[in-house]
Amino acid sequence: MTRELITYMTPTFSSENSEDKKQDRCSSAYQWFHRNRSKVIALSIISIISLFVLNIFTTATEILLNSAHSKIIQIITIALISLIMLSIIWKGLIPIVICSLGIALIYGGIIIPSYALTLSTNSYFKGIRVSIDQHMISMAAESYFFLGIVMVILSMIIAYKPTLLYVKNRPEPFDALWTQYQKWNNNWQLAGGYTERSIPLKSLMKEQEIYILWRYEYILTNIYNTHYLVEPNDFVPKSSIIVRDNKSGRMIGISKYSGYFI
Q1: pTM here?
Q2: For residue 13, is pLDDT > 50?
Q3: Per-residue burial over 42-69, b = 16 or more CB atoms within 10 Å of its CB, e = otherwise
Q4: N or C: at which end does the chain have fewer Cβ atoms within 10 angstroms?
Q5: Are 224 and 192 in contact, with CB atoms under 8 Å apart?
Protein backbone atom coordinates (compact mmCIF):
# COMPACT_ATOMS: atom_id res chain seq x y z
CA MET A 1 0.00 0.00 0.00
CA THR A 2 2.84 2.38 0.86
CA ARG A 3 4.70 1.67 -2.38
CA GLU A 4 1.56 2.33 -4.45
CA LEU A 5 1.02 5.65 -2.67
CA ILE A 6 4.61 6.76 -3.32
CA THR A 7 4.36 5.72 -6.96
CA TYR A 8 1.12 7.65 -7.37
CA MET A 9 2.41 10.85 -5.80
CA THR A 10 5.71 11.03 -7.67
CA PRO A 11 4.33 12.34 -11.03
CA THR A 12 2.35 15.07 -9.26
CA PHE A 13 5.46 16.21 -7.44
CA SER A 14 7.51 16.29 -10.62
CA SER A 15 4.80 18.21 -12.51
CA GLU A 16 4.63 20.79 -9.74
CA ASN A 17 8.40 21.17 -9.88
CA SER A 18 8.30 21.62 -13.64
CA GLU A 19 5.62 24.33 -13.32
CA ASP A 20 7.67 26.10 -10.66
CA LYS A 21 10.73 25.96 -12.92
CA LYS A 22 8.75 27.44 -15.81
CA GLN A 23 7.50 30.27 -13.61
CA ASP A 24 11.03 30.90 -12.37
CA ARG A 25 12.34 31.06 -15.94
CA CYS A 26 9.58 33.46 -16.98
CA SER A 27 10.24 35.63 -13.94
CA SER A 28 13.99 35.65 -14.63
CA ALA A 29 13.40 36.58 -18.29
CA TYR A 30 11.06 39.42 -17.31
CA GLN A 31 13.58 40.74 -14.77
CA TRP A 32 16.35 40.60 -17.38
CA PHE A 33 14.26 42.59 -19.88
CA HIS A 34 13.30 45.08 -17.17
CA ARG A 35 16.93 45.65 -16.12
CA ASN A 36 18.13 46.00 -19.72
CA ARG A 37 15.13 47.83 -21.19
CA SER A 38 17.18 50.92 -22.09
CA LYS A 39 19.65 48.78 -24.05
CA VAL A 40 16.84 46.91 -25.78
CA ILE A 41 15.13 50.16 -26.77
CA ALA A 42 18.44 51.53 -28.09
CA LEU A 43 18.86 48.37 -30.22
CA SER A 44 15.34 48.81 -31.57
CA ILE A 45 16.00 52.43 -32.57
CA ILE A 46 19.25 51.41 -34.29
CA SER A 47 17.35 48.62 -36.09
CA ILE A 48 14.68 51.05 -37.33
CA ILE A 49 17.35 53.43 -38.67
CA SER A 50 19.13 50.49 -40.33
CA LEU A 51 15.87 49.40 -41.96
CA PHE A 52 15.48 52.89 -43.43
CA VAL A 53 18.96 52.61 -44.96
CA LEU A 54 18.19 49.11 -46.22
CA ASN A 55 14.94 50.27 -47.78
CA ILE A 56 16.69 53.11 -49.61
CA PHE A 57 19.27 50.63 -50.90
CA THR A 58 16.68 48.13 -52.18
CA THR A 59 14.64 50.82 -53.96
CA ALA A 60 17.70 52.37 -55.60
CA THR A 61 19.21 49.04 -56.68
CA GLU A 62 17.64 46.36 -58.82
CA ILE A 63 18.13 43.08 -56.94
CA LEU A 64 16.57 39.84 -58.21
CA LEU A 65 14.57 37.83 -55.71
CA ASN A 66 16.57 34.59 -55.82
CA SER A 67 20.02 36.17 -56.08
CA ALA A 68 22.67 36.00 -53.35
CA HIS A 69 22.26 39.71 -52.61
CA SER A 70 18.52 39.23 -52.11
CA LYS A 71 19.10 36.41 -49.62
CA ILE A 72 21.60 38.53 -47.67
CA ILE A 73 19.08 41.39 -47.54
CA GLN A 74 16.38 39.02 -46.30
CA ILE A 75 18.67 37.71 -43.53
CA ILE A 76 19.61 41.24 -42.45
CA THR A 77 15.94 42.30 -42.50
CA ILE A 78 14.88 39.32 -40.36
CA ALA A 79 17.69 40.03 -37.88
CA LEU A 80 16.74 43.70 -37.57
CA ILE A 81 13.02 43.09 -37.13
CA SER A 82 13.81 40.37 -34.56
CA LEU A 83 15.69 42.95 -32.49
CA ILE A 84 12.66 45.23 -32.67
CA MET A 85 10.35 42.44 -31.53
CA LEU A 86 12.73 41.69 -28.66
CA SER A 87 11.90 45.08 -27.10
CA ILE A 88 8.13 44.49 -27.32
CA ILE A 89 7.65 40.80 -26.63
CA TRP A 90 7.59 41.22 -22.83
CA LYS A 91 5.26 44.25 -22.76
CA GLY A 92 1.87 42.64 -23.33
CA LEU A 93 -0.43 41.33 -26.05
CA ILE A 94 -1.55 44.62 -27.65
CA PRO A 95 1.99 45.94 -28.37
CA ILE A 96 3.00 42.50 -29.67
CA VAL A 97 0.07 42.34 -32.12
CA ILE A 98 0.63 45.89 -33.43
CA CYS A 99 4.38 45.33 -33.72
CA SER A 100 3.87 41.99 -35.53
CA LEU A 101 1.65 43.65 -38.13
CA GLY A 102 4.20 46.44 -38.56
CA ILE A 103 7.06 43.98 -38.97
CA ALA A 104 5.13 42.05 -41.63
CA LEU A 105 4.56 45.28 -43.57
CA ILE A 106 8.22 46.30 -43.24
CA TYR A 107 9.38 42.93 -44.53
CA GLY A 108 6.95 43.11 -47.44
CA GLY A 109 8.03 46.67 -48.26
CA ILE A 110 11.67 45.57 -48.56
CA ILE A 111 11.07 42.29 -50.43
CA ILE A 112 8.30 43.35 -52.86
CA PRO A 113 10.61 45.42 -55.16
CA SER A 114 12.86 42.37 -55.69
CA TYR A 115 9.83 40.15 -56.32
CA ALA A 116 8.35 42.65 -58.80
CA LEU A 117 11.45 42.38 -61.00
CA THR A 118 10.67 38.70 -61.62
CA LEU A 119 7.25 39.55 -63.09
CA SER A 120 6.73 40.20 -66.77
CA THR A 121 5.45 43.60 -67.79
CA ASN A 122 2.33 42.04 -69.32
CA SER A 123 0.21 39.24 -67.88
CA TYR A 124 -3.32 37.89 -68.22
CA PHE A 125 -5.99 37.50 -65.56
CA LYS A 126 -9.16 35.61 -66.66
CA GLY A 127 -8.46 36.48 -70.28
CA ILE A 128 -7.90 40.15 -69.55
CA ARG A 129 -4.54 41.68 -70.28
CA VAL A 130 -2.97 43.30 -67.25
CA SER A 131 -0.05 45.69 -67.54
CA ILE A 132 2.35 45.65 -64.59
CA ASP A 133 3.80 49.04 -63.76
CA GLN A 134 7.07 48.72 -61.81
CA HIS A 135 6.78 52.30 -60.60
CA MET A 136 3.36 51.65 -59.03
CA ILE A 137 4.70 48.52 -57.35
CA SER A 138 7.60 50.51 -55.89
CA MET A 139 5.17 53.11 -54.55
CA ALA A 140 3.07 50.36 -52.95
CA ALA A 141 6.19 48.85 -51.38
CA GLU A 142 7.15 52.26 -49.96
CA SER A 143 3.66 52.62 -48.51
CA TYR A 144 3.91 49.19 -46.87
CA PHE A 145 7.32 50.01 -45.43
CA PHE A 146 6.41 53.39 -43.92
CA LEU A 147 3.09 52.11 -42.58
CA GLY A 148 5.00 49.26 -40.94
CA ILE A 149 7.48 51.70 -39.37
CA VAL A 150 4.59 53.78 -38.01
CA MET A 151 2.97 50.69 -36.47
CA VAL A 152 6.26 49.59 -34.88
CA ILE A 153 6.80 53.04 -33.37
CA LEU A 154 3.17 53.06 -32.16
CA SER A 155 3.66 49.69 -30.46
CA MET A 156 6.78 51.00 -28.70
CA ILE A 157 4.89 54.08 -27.51
CA ILE A 158 2.07 51.92 -26.16
CA ALA A 159 4.59 49.65 -24.45
CA TYR A 160 6.86 52.26 -22.87
CA LYS A 161 5.16 55.68 -22.92
CA PRO A 162 1.37 55.35 -23.36
CA THR A 163 0.83 58.79 -21.77
CA LEU A 164 1.97 60.36 -25.06
CA LEU A 165 -1.30 59.15 -26.60
CA TYR A 166 -3.50 60.64 -23.89
CA VAL A 167 -5.68 63.61 -24.77
CA LYS A 168 -4.88 66.92 -23.07
CA ASN A 169 -6.99 67.50 -19.93
CA ARG A 170 -7.88 63.81 -19.97
CA PRO A 171 -10.08 62.96 -16.96
CA GLU A 172 -8.53 60.76 -14.30
CA PRO A 173 -9.62 57.11 -14.10
CA PHE A 174 -12.61 56.58 -11.83
CA ASP A 175 -10.60 54.28 -9.56
CA ALA A 176 -8.24 57.18 -8.80
CA LEU A 177 -10.98 58.62 -6.55
CA TRP A 178 -10.25 55.91 -4.00
CA THR A 179 -6.52 56.59 -3.69
CA GLN A 180 -7.17 59.45 -1.26
CA TYR A 181 -8.57 57.06 1.34
CA GLN A 182 -6.57 54.78 3.62
CA LYS A 183 -7.51 51.17 4.19
CA TRP A 184 -8.58 50.03 7.65
CA ASN A 185 -5.72 47.63 8.30
CA ASN A 186 -6.96 45.35 11.07
CA ASN A 187 -9.67 44.80 13.64
CA TRP A 188 -7.80 46.52 16.46
CA GLN A 189 -6.31 49.49 14.67
CA LEU A 190 -6.08 52.66 16.76
CA ALA A 191 -6.91 55.88 14.92
CA GLY A 192 -5.79 59.20 16.37
CA GLY A 193 -4.96 57.64 19.73
CA TYR A 194 -8.60 56.69 20.44
CA THR A 195 -9.52 53.38 22.01
CA GLU A 196 -13.04 52.04 21.77
CA ARG A 197 -14.85 48.72 21.71
CA SER A 198 -14.96 47.24 18.22
CA ILE A 199 -18.12 46.00 16.55
CA PRO A 200 -18.76 44.26 13.21
CA LEU A 201 -19.24 46.70 10.35
CA LYS A 202 -22.38 44.75 9.42
CA SER A 203 -24.03 45.89 12.64
CA LEU A 204 -24.09 49.46 11.24
CA MET A 205 -25.97 48.37 8.11
CA LYS A 206 -29.61 47.90 7.33
CA GLU A 207 -30.92 44.41 6.81
CA GLN A 208 -31.41 45.01 3.07
CA GLU A 209 -27.81 46.25 2.77
CA ILE A 210 -26.43 43.06 4.29
CA TYR A 211 -28.09 41.04 1.52
CA ILE A 212 -26.20 42.97 -1.21
CA LEU A 213 -22.93 43.11 0.73
CA TRP A 214 -21.37 40.51 -1.59
CA ARG A 215 -21.09 43.26 -4.24
CA TYR A 216 -18.70 45.35 -2.15
CA GLU A 217 -14.97 44.97 -1.80
CA TYR A 218 -14.62 47.94 0.58
CA ILE A 219 -17.11 50.19 2.40
CA LEU A 220 -16.28 53.86 2.93
CA THR A 221 -16.56 54.46 6.68
CA ASN A 222 -16.01 57.52 8.87
CA ILE A 223 -13.83 56.48 11.82
CA TYR A 224 -12.90 59.23 14.26
CA ASN A 225 -13.63 61.90 11.61
CA THR A 226 -11.41 60.22 9.03
CA HIS A 227 -12.66 58.26 6.02
CA TYR A 228 -11.33 54.71 5.68
CA LEU A 229 -11.95 51.87 3.26
CA VAL A 230 -13.15 48.96 5.38
CA GLU A 231 -13.67 45.37 4.29
CA PRO A 232 -17.31 44.23 4.72
CA ASN A 233 -16.48 41.55 7.30
CA ASP A 234 -14.12 43.73 9.31
CA PHE A 235 -14.57 45.29 12.76
CA VAL A 236 -14.64 49.02 13.48
CA PRO A 237 -14.98 51.24 16.58
CA LYS A 238 -18.54 51.55 17.88
CA SER A 239 -18.78 55.27 17.00
CA SER A 240 -17.99 54.68 13.31
CA ILE A 241 -20.43 55.88 10.65
CA ILE A 242 -20.90 54.37 7.19
CA VAL A 243 -20.66 57.08 4.50
CA ARG A 244 -23.81 57.23 2.38
CA ASP A 245 -25.00 59.03 -0.73
CA ASN A 246 -26.89 62.21 0.15
CA LYS A 247 -29.74 61.63 -2.29
CA SER A 248 -30.31 57.87 -2.28
CA GLY A 249 -28.96 57.09 1.18
CA ARG A 250 -27.09 54.06 -0.15
CA MET A 251 -23.68 53.02 1.12
CA ILE A 252 -20.65 54.26 -0.79
CA GLY A 253 -17.88 51.82 -1.51
CA ILE A 254 -15.73 50.00 -4.04
CA SER A 255 -17.50 47.40 -6.10
CA LYS A 256 -15.91 43.97 -6.13
CA TYR A 257 -16.46 43.75 -9.89
CA SER A 258 -16.49 47.20 -11.53
CA GLY A 259 -14.89 49.59 -9.05
CA TYR A 260 -17.78 52.08 -9.20
CA PHE A 261 -20.08 53.47 -6.52
CA ILE A 262 -23.02 51.23 -5.67
Answers
A1: 0.54
A2: no
A3: ebbeebbeebeebbeebeeeebebeeee
A4: N
A5: yes
